[in-house]
Structure formats: structure tokens, C-alpha cells
Design a protein that fits this description.
By secondary structure, this protein is α+β, with helices and mostly antiparallel strands. The chain has one domain. Helices cover 18% and strands 19% of the residues. The strands form 2 sheets. The protein has a 3-stranded antiparallel sheet, with helices on one face. A two-stranded antiparallel ribbon has the order 1-2.
């Protein structure tokens, strides 16, 4: 599990149950996507909750979940520009 810790002390991550995050402080968990089948039984990963695209279609749910997590790690699990540390 990757944790991004901002200079203000906030953390963010793609939630999983590998680590009990409650030991580091109060949690605020928000949905990053919706992984659902479409009307044809194909699986879609809708990343609109984090201003992302819709991914798919995928033949099965596990493929959609892998694509969802990969996209979140590559595009969302980054410090926001105002949160990034600047060094001179």
C-alpha cells in the first residue's frame, strides 16, 4: 500500500485492508470509482468521483478492478501541486 503524506500531515491512499489505517488517525474514506457491469454484462470502471475517465469494457470484474487501481496509482495518488514539497 502506498501512502502519500502531505506537508500538512494528511495522508491519502488507495484503500485496502493490508494496513489498519485507523492506527494513524481519524479516517475519511471517499469513493474513488464505481466498478459495475453495463447493460451487456461488460464491466466498467467509472472514475468520475476523482475527475477521471470511464475505463472498459472489461470481460470480468477483476480486470476492471486492476485497471481502476492502476489508473488511481498513476493519476490520482500524487500530491496535489499545492501540497508538494518545494526545495531550493
Amino acid at each position: 500500500m502506498e501512502l502519500i503524506v502531505t506537508p500538512s500531515g494528511n495522508c491519502r491512499c488507495v484503500y485496502g485492508e493490508d494496513v489498519d489505517l485507523s492506527v494513524i488517525g481519524k479516517l475519511s474514506i471517499q469513493r474513488g470509482s464505481h466498478v459495475e457491469p453495463d447493460e451487456n454484462g461488460q464491466w466498467m470502471a467509472d472514475l468520475s468521483p476523482v475527475d477521471g475517465p470511464s475505463l472498459g469494457p472489461f470481460g470480468n470484474r477483476s480486470e476492471a478492478l486492476r485497471a481502476e487501481v492502476a489508473w488511481l496509482h498513476q493519476h490520482w495518488l500524487l500530491p496535489a501541486p499545492e501540497e508538494a514539497l518545494h526545495t531550493d
